[in-house]
Every structure is written in C-alpha cells, then in structure tokens.
Amino acid sequence: MIIVADVGGTFARLAIAEVRAGQPPRLSALRQYRCADYASLAAILADFTAAALHPLDTAVVAIAGLLEGDHLVNTNLAWPVSVAATRAEAGLRSLALINDFEAVAYAIPYVQPDTLVSLNGEPGVASPWPALVLGPGTGLGAALRFQGGDQPVLASEAGHAALTAGNALELEILRQMQQRWEHVDQERILSGSGLMNLYPCLCGIRGVTPRWQSTEDLIAAAHAGEDVLAVETLQVFSAWLGSLAGDLAITFGARSVYLAGGIPTRVAAFLHAGGFRTRFLAKGVMSGVLAQVPVWRVEHGELGMLGAAVWHGARRDRAAA
C-alpha cells in the first residue's frame, strides 16, 4: 500500500494504491487538492497521510516537470520542489518523483476501452506500439509508450520545444507571441494557460476587445456560442493541437495516439468538429500513413495516479529479479 499522486499546475490528486504482482493496481481513498491552497507539496502529502486509516510511508508522485538531481524544473507549479526536503517534511521513508506524462504512459496498457473516444483511424490496428501520449492541461505533456522492456516509457519535455505555425493566421499569432517572449514554446498556446494567450492575440487581430479573463469563462462562452472570438479560439487551438500530434506521431513513428490531460475533455466538442483531424493528417506524403493511426481522447481522470503505481510495481519487480 503506497501513496500515489498526480500533481499538475492547478490540482494535485492523491490516492492509496494497492500494488500486487501480475494485477492492475487498485486505487482507493481518492482526494483532490488545489495546489495554490497549500504551502508546499510536502504539506499536501502530510495532510493526506494524516487522514489515512493505515500508516503510509512510501509515495510516488507523478508531477509536471523535469527532475534535475534533487530539484524539479517546472514553470507551472505554485512552489519549488526538492525531493529530499519534501520527503523529510512529509514524514515519508521513501519518495519518488516521476514526470506526470511518463506516469500517464505507464498507465496506457490498463486503460479500459469504454474510456476511449475515437478522433481518427481504425481501432483494430495490428500493433498500437509505440503509443504517443499527449496532453494539454495547465501545461503540455508528452511521452512515448513501448510494448515492454525494462524501460517501456520515453519521457519528454515536448511542451517546451519551439511552437511552429502551419498557416497565415498561426504565423501572425506566433509573431505577436515573439514580441512577448524570446522563446515561444508549444505550451504558450497548447495548454489551459495557453488558451489565455491565444484568445487576446485573436482579439487583437480581429480588432475586438477581450471579454474573458479566465480559461473557465472562455471555454464556457465558446460552448454557449455567445462569443465568436471564444469559439474561434477553441477552433484554432484544436487544429493547432492536431498539427502537433501529427508532427510528434511522425517524429516518433507512433502507431497510436492518446490525448489525455485536463483540457481535451473540456473542449471535446471542438476536438471532434474536424479541425484536429484535418491538421493531424495534413503532413504531405505521410497523410496516408497517419490516416491509419488511431487517435483516442481518453476520458479517465486517474491515469497519472494509476501510472505512478504501475511504475512503482515495475521498479519493485526489477529489483526482485
């Protein structure tokens, strides 16, 4: 029995995982925390541990960012993270931090079919591996999942690679963004926070005064159809995300793509409207290849925690071998 956590820029989700050899992990006692309400990751872990019915001293945390030694490199969290300090302050014997989309990729073999909604391709492909896992949330995560082996997941920081444009409108948006930032990465647009960069850019291009000040209000206005610019923002976002998904699928030779993260479910109607698929396939001579690649939107809110437990079990099994 271990603590597993999925920590993003806005929320942290924690659970107790029962990890048994040869079986999918079982999660219980799920709780969600708003990161900004707590002084540190350690404070969240300590609060969860204190409420548990049984003593818990081991935690695996799937967290947005890149671990460099003891320090987590991340631009979206409410606080800095040190592994050693967090372990000590939370009163844990063992603490492991892994990339959040590395964890999601570990969970992919355990995703149930009824949580998958098709965006492209034929479901019955001969082999879905390697699988690209891509997810816009507060930031943008990506990882590659192989069928097996000692290292079945390749983590990445694709969200921090340079944003590229595929048409005149995107070029103009990118030009405006470059006036604000020296390096304009993918998640400046293709994330929840990125939507609030994209929207005012479009308003400026169209000569309209922005009305919405939060991602939640923007998405709600787009779904209600009450603001043409809000609708266009999600249309442009969905198409641009499709273009990136196609680029990464080609780059890694992915045979399936899974869209996870907090944003896809919230903008599902726009993703399924067609712009995402059109741009996913718009890769010249590779379009016929990509037409055969299944793209799934994953309706599963516990993948990060599930993947953290799978990662723990795999590491334990290797150590015992």
Write up this protein:
The protein has 321 residues and is of the alpha/beta class. It contains 12 helices and 13 strands. It has helices spanning 41-51, 83-90, 100-107, 168-178, 192-206, 215-224, 228-252, 263-266, 268-271, 275-281, 287-290, 303-320; strands at 2-7, 11-18, 26-34, 58-63, 66-68, 71-73, 94-99, 116-120, 131-136, 140-145, 153-155, 256-259, 295-298. Helix 6 crosses helix 7 (228-252) and helix 7 (228-252) packs parallel to helix 10 (275-281). The mean pLDDT is 93.
Q: Quote the average pLDDT.
A: 93
Query: What's the count of strands?
Result: 13
Q: Which structural class do you get from the secondary structure elements?
A: alpha/beta
- Write out the strand line-up for the largest beta sheet, numbering strands in chain order: 8-13-12-9-10-11
Quick recap of the structure?
This protein is α/β, with parallel strands linked by helices and 321 residues long. 39% of the residues lie in helices and 21% in strands.
